[in-house]
User: Fold these one by one.
Assistant:
Number 1:
Amino acid sequence: MKVNFHHFGLAGLLLIGVAGLTAQRPAADKGLKDYYQQYFPIGVAVSTQALKNPAETALILQQFNSLTPENDMKMGPIHPEENRYNWGPADAIVDFAQGHKLRVRGHNLCWHEQTPKWLFKNADGSQVSKEVLLKRLHDHIDAVVKRYKGKIYAWDVVNEAIADNPNEFLRNSDWYKICGEDFIAEAFRYAHAADPQAVLFYNDYNTERPEKMERIYKLLKKLKDAHVPIDAVGLQGHWSLVEPTEQELRTTIERFGSLGLKVQVTELDVSVYPWEKDRRARRPDESDAYTPEMQQKQTAQYKLFFKVFRDEAKYMTGITFWNISDHYSWLDTYPVAGRKNHPLLFDENFKPKPAYYEVVKF
Ligand code: XIL
């Protein structure tokens, strides 16, 4: 019998070639969640609209294992009238997550923004009393947390209660004006009563700026000392090419961790513009350009931040990005309307940016 060595040899060579290629390249379906499997879940903020777009759902399922509803669980959207809840969009996100075995972080239960019109007013238009407002807060938290009990593992219970002004402690919101600081502890108690298993967070921005960090620490310590059921703190992580520094970030994580709280980054993006809360109008010299310098600096920032997260892994229980890709970011319209930003790890065509490769290289 004549063996055709020629063909055998060719097939063998082909086999070796294919094996070599797969060894060098990560599997096509490997994503952030897989690289970070030993560390913590990697999440992303989503809308129901994104979950209807096949390009976006493919990217979500490849890269992430946790979801946060970007807007649909906030009090205004989910509870538009006192006796009416709008569950549809929130349910759709939770159903999608359940169907694909993704975790869900609930966002959020008590915030000064995106509140429904009826919340702070009596039927006659006058301001509600503290007693009435706390009862409304209780009923809201009880209904929302119980509906998703066992499906949502963590809640941002109170969002952004610290004032921007360094000379003030708590933000002078309607919550604070009507209830004083009690609404904070009460919100945690209501959430804990509704779902004792849920991991309860205080969540805020600019948490790494030393002065604001100290005020947040003071609030968290007060809550811990009073045995309020708080488990963790969320650093929103709306950062930029110029902040935070490595030291600020490490100090913040370790300081909050020292209170026995877990830490997550809950809304990560790295703006190509500096932080400016109050400007709305675009300047004539501003373009939408994503310059090579911006890209380089952003890549270095992402690389640094994830190195710190890995180093501080004993405190960290999750990292969530605020939006999926540069195709759409809330920073395209905030704070400056109509100025394109490029803050995420995937570009406008859903392709990984250089920063992505640095984040998964360790
Ligand atoms: C933002 C959403 O991304 C926008 O779509 C919405 O218009 C405003 O809120 N801190 C938070 C998030 O806790 O809820 C905010 O989300 C971004 C800042």
Number 2:
Amino acid sequence: MSSQSDSGDDGRTAIRQRHHDTADEVLPDRTGLYVGGEFVAADAGETFDTLDPTTGEVLESVARGREADVDRAVEVAWSAFDSTWADYSAGRRQQVLTEIADIIEEHVDELARLETLDNGKPVSEATIDIRGAAEQFRYFAGLVRENPGETMSEGSRYGQVIKEPYGVVGQVIPWNFPLMMASWKLAPALAAGNCSVLKPAEETPLSALRLAELIDEIVPDGVVNVVPGYGEEAGAAVTGHPDVRKVAFTGSTAVGKQVMKSAADTVTDVTLELGGKSPVVVFPDVDVEKAVSLVSSAIFYNTGECCEAGSRLFVHEEVAADVLEGLAAAVEDMTIGDPLDEATDLGPKVSGEQVDRTLEYLESARDDGGEFLVGGGRPDDESLADGCYVRPTLVEGLDHGSAAVQEEIFGPVLTVFRWDDYDEMIELANDVDYGLAGGVITDDITQANTTARDIEAGYIWINSYHDLIPGLPFGGYKESGIGRELGAETLEHYRQTKTINLSLR
Ligand code: NDP
């Protein structure tokens, strides 16, 4: 594992300086709540700090929304829906979504660097996120006019079945892909004709606020509202609000369960995109170099902070030694460093809390007899001492029932299992509460398809990983969620069915 930074104190100073300079260029001017087309202070006048996980320094103070602020945002959103947005034709909504995509693309570089400051992800990966966010708006702009109805005629009855928007939807997103998650939520909601109250994660509120600034001239006031704050305050107020007619949540399974329970009180429709503990299966026929590259990207992309991360490797005995040797070498070759540097492969995690969480899992893996093939703690490099870094880690020898194997670590930690009996391997691959994704690596396409069907998960990659294409629905089986994003069916999650039964007599 290498670092391209200067060593020690010089390296720390250089990183800090680069982050201060970038902050001067890209931090948004307005960090209030975005409600009704204006940036306003929180009702209680409170703020919270968002930190740069690379330097540990405060980036910005952001308005801390609470229940009163969410109430106001929901009221304003309904008013925008009733007075304006519900009357927008599909063509006008399509235009709005297209313009949002355009303006994001015009600001890719700025938004990517902002995301890197707030989240810590390498700027090369942040750039992919921002382009992906624009693509979401473009994809759903294309689908806006897809609103087919049905009619039925029977004797003296004439029936119409039409789809209507919910009105106001509540959307809560996590910190791992901040702007991309905002786009996954906002694009289909607006396309279907809804107004939104969006709560970004407390760790990464800045790109959603900057997006609000950018789209202010494009979207009518009150159609998009952004209320930053803490999950138990602003988040719970959004997901439990009696006038929010649909809730869309992405985050941990634990909180997703709470969201679903609170939605039950108001019988509100919910979609949930939750955690994962996805298997990647390597067959003996693989090209080892290609397998190493895919497995490495499956777990280490975005510092392992991906719900779909391929965090359990099942590698066939025949190629296990070569693949593991290749993976260990790949880890040694990774550049861990300042995420603003284009050459960096692995940046810091999003927060000190997330570092502690990952280190606790490493500790439990050690206690459970895990053998660390590489990694296993924080990097020694003094120039990275201010940041929330964890070394990429490979652990073998764990019982499949142990916590580090069963639970979502959300860090750069791969647990490794060797197999030679297919049925036993599939049984283990499915032996988790999650079912979000999976990977299959083999050139035997019949085998690949069989295994794709045998893995209980909502999204399977064969000979690739992470690439999510608009039009191919993404979402989980089992405790990984309810509903699908990225696909045409996503629009249906933001519409309700109305039947009009007309008597002709
Ligand atoms: P959370 O599930 O707590 O956070 C996701 C979002 O939900 C954030 O905006 C959060 O607010 C909000 N939230 C928190 N509590 C509530 C609540 N009671 N009602 C409504 N909204 C709420 O994830 P964490 O950030 O705590 O991360 C913990 C673990 O969750 C990670 O280590 C990872 O394992 C998993 N995770 C999975 C994600 C995925 O995409 N599958 C994404 C993020 C985390 P805020 O954080 O602002 O307080």
